[in-house]
Amino acid sequence: MDLTMNGDGPADALSRTASLAPHRDARGSVLTHGMRAFLSERLRPLLPELMAIFGLLGLIWASTILILQREYSSEKAEASGVTLALTKAYTETTERIVGEIDQMLLALQSNYLHDGDAFDLDQWAKTHVRGDEMRVQLALHDKNGFVTQSTMRRVIPGSINVSDRPHFTYHLDPSHDDLFISDPVVGRTTGQQTIQFTRKLVDASGDFSGMVLLSLSCSELSLFYGAGDTGQASVGLINKSGVILAGGGLFGQRIGSKPDLAIPGGPMPTRPATAPSHLTTWDTTEGLVTYSPVRHFPLTVIVFKSDSEIFAGYDETFRHVVWVGIMASMMVIVVGAFWLTQRFQAIVSSHALNATLAGIDQGILMIDSHDNVSVSNQRALVLLHLRRKGDPIPTTIDAVNRIVAAGTTVLEHRDHRVVETVMEDGQVLEVRTTPLKNGTTIHTLTDITVRHLAEERIRYLAHHDVLTGLPNRTQLDQTLSVALERARLNGTRVCVAFVDLDGFKDVNDTLGHLLGDSLLVHVAQVIRSTIDPEDFVARMGGDEFVIIRTCAHDADNGSDLARVLIGRMGEAVRIEGHEVRVSASIGIAVFPDSGTDGGTLFKNADIALYRAKTEGRSTYRIFEPWMDEKLQRRAMLEEDLRKALDAGTLQVHFQPQFEGKNLGLVGFEALARWDHPKRGFINPESFVSVAEECGLITQLGAFVLERACAEASRWPSECYVAVNVSVMQLLDTRFSEVVREILERTGLPSHRLELEVTESVMAGKSAQILASMTALRRLGVGLTLDDFGTGYSSLGNLLRFPFDKVKIDKSFVQRQHEDPGARAIMEAILAMGRHIGLQVVAEGAETEEQLAMLQRQGCPIIQGYILGKPLAGHLAALLMQPSGTYRVEPEFMGV
Asked: For 271, which of 6, 247, 293, 357 could close a Cys bridge (C-beta 3.0–4.6 Å)?
């Protein structure tokens, strides 16, 4: 329903054509001028007859309009009276219903203030609330939005929270204490579409303590507005925002949305308590609308009666009267139609060809066999750059012949020929020449400048990057193919350099993609200004660029270019007020040393780029065959590691940890070990680094954690197990949940599990890491700061992160007997641990001298090969001793 304002009655439609045309805007003026020219030039001979015919027709239809206008006014007045009466009646009833609800809520508010938490809602409702289907529930909510009492039996106190609902947040404002009426919402308690009537609750001190809520069923309330004989009018109730709360007819179908009514004067006003009845009625293009605000409350009753309902009787009269008018008009028209038609067709036919030629966008020239221009239009003269039709015929023929002769033939056919010509001003003309059998030639001229430019743009975009304007991968492949073919013929070299930005992702993540795009444009300009004129550069996508140097004498020529590029691209640049600094890594492959075809050169340049990135970034590497072999070995190792993890063939060994004073066994550190069936024992550092690079570290960490907890669950209760975790695991928001599930499956108490975290995690996204560590502490899991003193060492981290232990890196343990500085650091860490309540673990004790020094320094826990190497799980279990001094015997010193 789309109702808009319109001051005219429907009967006025019969007279609009005659009454509105002289009063339009500039378009109307042009239309009037054209009509006058039409009458003057073409219809003047028929003017007397036309005046007589139109005079009779005007008399017939003037009488018809007068009759219909009177009938229309009568129907409209009757409908207006009905809608006004309905609006007034429903407004008064709505005011009484909502007033009763508000008084009930005020009474409840007062009783709650008096009784406080002892207030019994069910008992109060039995004596104060009238039970009907319209009132769904009465409920109390505390200051946090949780339901505390409800008249619905199935509601459990505390199970429903409405703190995010507007009818709750409205009462958080202490500046007002009035009735709030919500938009229709689906109740979380009832599951029905309801209107929430709410008032604020305060305690004895006047502080906000919650709200009281009455849910009114939208469907039941709509039955009230749809009840009774309303003469097929639709009655609705809307709030001050224009949202339909309830209604019958058309309004009942759109509860919860706004009616498509263009209400004059903006939003529905709220009528003050002392204001008299306020009824407003206005016409729309589809019916009659009446509305009245409800006193005291931000509600409005609205009644709509469509034209089809209002003018049901009028439409029948309209049809009869108009039919009579049509019959009378037909009699007048038939009398003069025959001879007027004949004469009019003759006038129209004489101008048909000129009108057709003038209305098309193409130029038309028809030249007969005697070289006479028999037909032409103004557009042809414009395209030929001729001033007017009066130019000599030879001039016109010469102009079109010159264009055809200067153009390029794009289509040659036995029936026609198409030529494209670029004019001096850049305009592109297409001339289609069609010879006829009688010797006549037709030239069709079309301005195809826009199409030509679009085709050029498409060709450009097919071979260039839109952002930087550099050639794209398509043009890169074509250029490299040509360069390699020329190098083969001339015996020269070609350098292919892959350039990749270091840290570009951080720029995108921190400063946004728009600034990242500006940085890419700047990088493209730097590369363009650095390379030689004979060099070629393309953007591969993302932050990767490719340079082809076709005049390279040897690999050193590419190295020189790489060094200059790395230096220039490492300089800081200011973009949009931000100082941005990135570096570049470059991989170089040289034809024919590194490959003889484009695909091989691209692959090997990419391998060299990978080496540059893994060896520190902001550098370059020239491809060498061993790089490919190493990459292949790494790929094979990665594939084997995936299979080993899937098959569960990795092993977990356990290195014992001892109490420093008496060397009593206190726990083990779990370490991943891989005995490859073909390669034998693989260094843990090798396969752990591969796991980190290829994203398997999370799966590997979970595997070790599960095996370690399962093994430790069979140990004596005083023995703990320590497991290393990676930064990727701590960045997983579900990591603490994974640990909890593993502990439940294995039956290991949480206090017997310690997780070791390296200092490197402190340099990353510490907010998520801190959240994960805090969650682990809540589980009861111990946390150890591993390799303390070698990475991002900060005393603040010991206070900021919830560590239980610190593990001193073995480099300090093994150097302190000969390095006073290392010994001073060791003693400082031990003293710090005693003062702030952190246990200290020293790892890497491999000699008697190192062990003795650690014991003299009072180190609480010691770990090292002098006491015990990592052992398989079944060997570790054999060494469990209930108490006493312990040292691993030589036969247990396994790998």
From this structure: 293
Q: Which of 579, 473, 560 is nearest to 522 (CA)?
A: 579
What is the enclosing helix (H) or strand (E) of 159?
none
Residue 573 bridge partners (DSSP) = 580
Burial class (CB in 10 A: 0-12, 13-18, 19+), 331: exposed
Would you say 583 and 503 are in contact if contact means Cβ atoms under 8 Å apart? yes
In sequence order, the β-bridge partners of residue 586 are 499, 620
Strand pairing of 536-541 and 417-422?
Answer: unpaired
Q: Distance of CA 792 to CAs 514, 689, 702, 806, Å?
A: 33, 19, 25, 14
Through-space distance between the first and last CA atoms of the chain, rounded to whole angstroms? 83
Give residue 10's pLDDT: 41
Kindly state the tokens that stand for 218.
């939208």
Burial class (CB in 10 A: 0-12, 13-18, 19+), 625: exposed
Separation CA 476–CA 176 (nearest Å): 70
Q: Is 367 exposed, middle or buried (0-12, 13-18, 19+ CB in 10 A)?
A: buried
What stretch of H or E contains 261? none
Q: From CA 273, how far away is CA 291, in angstroms rounded?
A: 17
Query: How many angstroms separate the Cα of 492 from the Cα of each of 485, 555, 596, 598?
Result: 10, 12, 12, 15
Q: Tell me the pLDDT band of 54, cut-offs 50, 70 and 90.
A: confident
More confident call, 630 vs 132: 132
Segment 191-233, tens digit of pLDDT: 888 999 999 998 888 888 999 998 888 888 888 887 644 556 8
Cβ partners under 8 Å of residue 496, min gap 6: 480, 546, 547, 548, 588, 589, 590, 591, 601, 602, 605
Q: Write out pLDDT tens, residues 450-501.
A: 888 887 888 888 788 888 889 988 888 899 999 888 888 888 889 999 999 9
The Cβ of residue 38 has, within 10 Å, a number of other Cβ atoms equal to 12
Q: What are the beta bridge partners of residue 201? A: 210
**3-class DSSP state for residue 357?**
helix
Q: How many helices (H) and strands (E) does the chain have?
A: 27, 33
- Interatomic CA distance for residues 420 and 451, integer angstroms: 12
d(CA 745, CA 647) in angstroms, rounded, equals 20
User: What pTM was computed for the model?
Assistant: 0.41
In order of 87, 472, 528, 567, the CA distances from 515 in angstroms are 59, 21, 20, 22
Tell me how far apart the alpha carbons of residues 165 and 235 are, in angstroms, rounded to a whole number.
28
Question: pLDDT at position 241, please?
Answer: 84
Q: Any bridge partners for residue 431, and if so which?
A: 419, 445
Segments of 204-334 assigned E as strands: 208-217, 234-239, 244-247, 280-283, 287-293, 299-306
Spell out the SS3 assignment of 627-674.
HHHHHHHHHHHHHHHHHHHHHCCCEEEEEEEEECCCCCEEEEEEEEEE
Residue 505 has, within 13 A of its CA and on its CB side, a CA count of 1
CB atoms within 10 A of CB 167: 19
Q: Which helix (H) or strand (E) holds 748?
A: none
pLDDT at 552 over 60: yes
According to DSSP, the residues that pair with 501 across neighbouring strands are: 584
Q: How far is it, in rounded angstroms, from Cα 118 to Cα 643?
A: 66
Q: Angle, to 10 degrees, between the axis of helix 697-712 and the axis of helix 625-647? A: 40
Q: What is the 3-state secondary structure (H, E, C) of 412-476?
A: ECCCCEEEEEECCCCCEEEEEEEECCCCCEEEEEEECHHHHHHHHHHHHHHHECCCCCCECHHHH
Residue/partner pairs of 871-875 with CB below 8 Å, 24 or more apart: 871/653, 871/654, 871/655, 871/656, 872/651, 872/653, 872/654, 873/652, 873/653, 873/654, 873/707, 873/711
Residues 6+ apart with CB under 8 A from 528: 470, 537
* Cβ partners under 8 Å of residue 335, min gap 6: none
